[in-house]
Structures
1.
Amino acid sequence: MRRRAKPVLAVALAAAAALIAGCGGDDDAETATVAAAAELTPVKTYLTDHSADLVAQVEELKANADAYYDLAESVDFDYGRLLDEHREEVAELLDDSKQVFVAANPAYEQMEGIVAGVPRLAHYDVDIDAGSDASTPEDAVSFTLTTVDGDKLEQPGNLFFLTETALYGTNEELQSKGVEADLDGDGEVAFGEGLPDAKIYRATLEEFESQAKSLDEDAQEFEPSPSDALTSIVVMTPTMSEYFEAWKNSRFIAGDAAAEEGFVATSRLSDIADILGGILVTYEGIEPMVAAENEAQATQTREELEDLVAFAADLRDREAGGEKFSAKQADALGAQAQAQAEAIAGQVTQAASQLGVELQEG
């Protein structure tokens, strides 16, 4: 499943404990003066630009889902008839939806470092991108899908996972029954050809649209503080091993033997680069505040974060260019990225201590 374990601030704090030993906070007046150096308006603008973009993409997905539902309803949800009578139209709708999904993915991933890293926004990350189904209650999404017939799917998994696996046919529970999804009519079902259950798919996009709009509304009201910025970096940077593990288990590494149903439309490497890019934007907003206290530390952290972003982007581009990576390489690259990320998180934790800024617990 497309999911990520909940970030745990205590882990990052423990990793940084040796770095912050002996560091004390400034008095209130000095802390306020240093905090004024932060430039967090660009962080909010970055967040709201992406939240608005996500709404636009999800609204398009929802419109396509409605059109697909109407076609299915017109043949009494007989999916054999649907393909016989509307194959070309169905194929065009679903192909367009896949293209929109590919655009929606970075619209979210690039702001995920803020959404998932700030405790008061993090519930959106669970429902939209990282939460599991009810089989893992502690990490499960909060919502239940209800179809037009009143059927309920309780805590079915996060919305990106549901949308992707319905469109690409990798989750049988979300597919139409009794017909093969031969969308191009060539007599066989190729990987990536999916024919979603129209009732479930429309319910999914109704929930997705609601969540995306709610996130956008909260983003518009969100005024990032130094604590928000520093917390999000400390929480989200040292999650590299989990992302690389998902990459290793996806079709991009494992091929047909992949255990992962999601991450078929876009490589997890793209997500990693997008997430780190957003974290870098957040750090650039807080860097003047860190530099006001310790300029050398601020520069070192930015340079190491830029190196990590470049590392991920290079891997993404090499894979997109045709280079194939093995599971062993994925493990080694993930370990390297994790070590770099933990060092950065430790430095930011140290900076927070020096500045007298309290990091937030989720």
2.
Amino acid sequence: MGDTDMGDSTSPLMLRRRLRTELRTARLDSNLTQEQVAKAMEWSMSKMNRIEKAKSGISANDLKMLLPLYGITDKARAEELVALAREARESPWWNRYKGVAPEKLLELIDYESAASAVSQFEPMFVPGILQTEEYARAVLQVHYDEKSAAERLAAMVDLRTRRRGLLTRENAPHFAYVLDEPVINRVVGSSAVMSRQFQHLANLAKLPNVTIQVVPFTAGLHPGMKGPFEVVQFADTPDENIVFLEGPRGDFISEDPEETENYLEAFKRITEASLGPSDSVKRLLQAADEMT
């Protein structure tokens, strides 16, 4: 699991989305309905929907039978699509953390890998993807404090560190983060750990696709008071945007367009109550100095 894994801009979900776009276009060009295709292929409508929503891949054998139905008979074109289908079914790097990391977190990373934009509000801790290794270790230690969980703790810290590569890979999404001021005031690990973490945030904010803002206490009440959330957007299909919600009973991913739109609007309002990006960086650097 080298760092080059993180630089791969063609995640399985991204490839599935690319393939489904090709197949959906071909189906429509052939004047076929989903029902007609499902019947001809002897598929359930559930399977048909999952393929066209990029929820699951399609096997090379299924695709070879589907292409003639769609009028795709050119050998080179068919081979190109079959190769894409095979690549889209390969396991991504984060699958190696199955059984260690929460299932919904790995699902979220899958979505992030194919996103055009990610907007996250965090009221308690620095978002996982922005955490330094020592900050991540201090946060995760609270959850896995038994000696028997030392290996799991190390794997989770490793996952958070590797996930950070999504920020700088080729064709990376635009990441917008808003931190409530308690994030800056809560000491995690030690003052020295906090100081280095704030410096790290200030450095990440220099990336062209990363924006980090802080909501000051003086902003008063705002829509983020209900809890942390993350909206993942897709430029090609806004109706497939998702929202990731963390809660005491576990994490939840909603695909409801109205709900994701509500959270996007809430994020916009929180952003308007925040310090601007440059003032936010100044606040983080000030906090770093105060912690030393």
